[in-house]
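Hello,

Our lab assistant flagged a job as stuck in the queue for most of the afternoon. It eventually completed. Since we weren't sure the result was trustworthy after the delay, we are filing this so someone can double-check. Below is the sequence as submitted and the structure that was eventually returned. Let us know if re-running is recommended.
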Amino acid sequence: MNTLSLRKRLLLVAALVLVTFLGLAGFALDRAFISSAEVSLKNQLRTQTFALLSVLEVDANGEIILPAQLPEARLLVPNSGLYAVIVDNKNETSWQSPSSIGMELENMEKQTQGSESFFQEGDSLNSPFRYSFSISWETEDSKEFEFTLVLIEASEHFAAFVDEHRAKIILWLGMVGTFILLLQMVALVWSLSPLSRVANELDLIESAKQDRIEGRYPQEIEQLSQRINQFIGTERKNMARYRNTLGDLAHSLKTPLAVLRGMGEDGKAVDSGELGHYVGRMSDIVDYQLQRAAASRTSVIGTKVTLKPIFTGIRDSLDKVYADKGVVCSSDELEDIQFYGDQSDIYEILGNVMDNAYKWSNSKVKVCGAKLAASEKYAGGIRISVEDDGSGIDAELKSEVLQRGVRADQRTEGQGIGLAVCIEIVERYDGTMDISKSELGGAKIEIILHSAVS
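-- returned structure --
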């Protein structure tokens, strides 16, 4: 099933967010403009009301007199859209503007004295607006007459004004949205360019034009590129170790196979003891190389391993194996030590080194651990030291034990398969193994393992 690319997904989400935002912004601007326009219209009608009141006169009989020339010219033009009506205290029309002649004006009622009201007669923009202002007029002979002046503004002008503004809002928001969308496209291309560069480098690696990811990338992608490089390097090391292991196995078996072939060709009776010796040697070689091959398989997918339970399990097992020696094994600062790696690797290293310590100690073994701080190359790591109170390891033997690439038939007796496998594992974690003099009097083996993950 085809799925949208990251760029298309982000662009689609950005477009939806932008359209939603612009729609809400347009709605808010439209409502704000209409409210502002209504307030402006109310103020305008109030001003026209006061202008009419300034030229209005009332005679002794309460008859309202207005001049032929009104302050607002639209009130003189029929069907101009602006109409004025004066309603007396009996809700009867006392006067209406020339613009309203021939029109039926409904619901003209007297308002409470001194009050004003402004409202739209319907819910749509096509409904007219009505402004009413109630006054009490006192004549020269101290007579008071109450009446209400009503101004009606037809909605055609208001609706046209709002529609014009809406068209401008749509135009400007459309232009702004298009501009922002283009900016988002440019920003997405720029933001996702590191992923494109990583993909290009992977293509170069697949075509054997490049060995690893070499570019510098943002922090979010840097760890990914490091993991990919680690995976590539690990797989190449695994292939190299497989080839070397097969070569070592073939080389190691040549001599005993030649001897066995010679024993069969001489026509003499085969000495069962000598035959068993060479068969046993071949079995040891095969076991050794198989163990190396199994330990040489590197995995870039690890888990967080706690050191203390592993140490406790190995110590309990060795206490039973070497019960006759009565070895006392102590530990220091292992409770909070955790490492991101393969648990079987930690078992293999610690088990072999502690087994050697038990084997060569007199009565004491000590295991210490410490966390390593993160650096530019590694996210963290651990340091493990195993000490004993035995006779120690000679200087010449140290160099042979720590030498890389020692073949199966070059093993030093007493260190055997165990330390050779440990060295293989330590190298996979870009670590080191060092042998020195212990404060207990015997040997001290210190192992450093690095981790790509904290």
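-- support follow-up --
The delay was a queue issue, not a problem with the job. The result is valid. The longest strand covers residues 129-138. Residues 211-300 form one domain.
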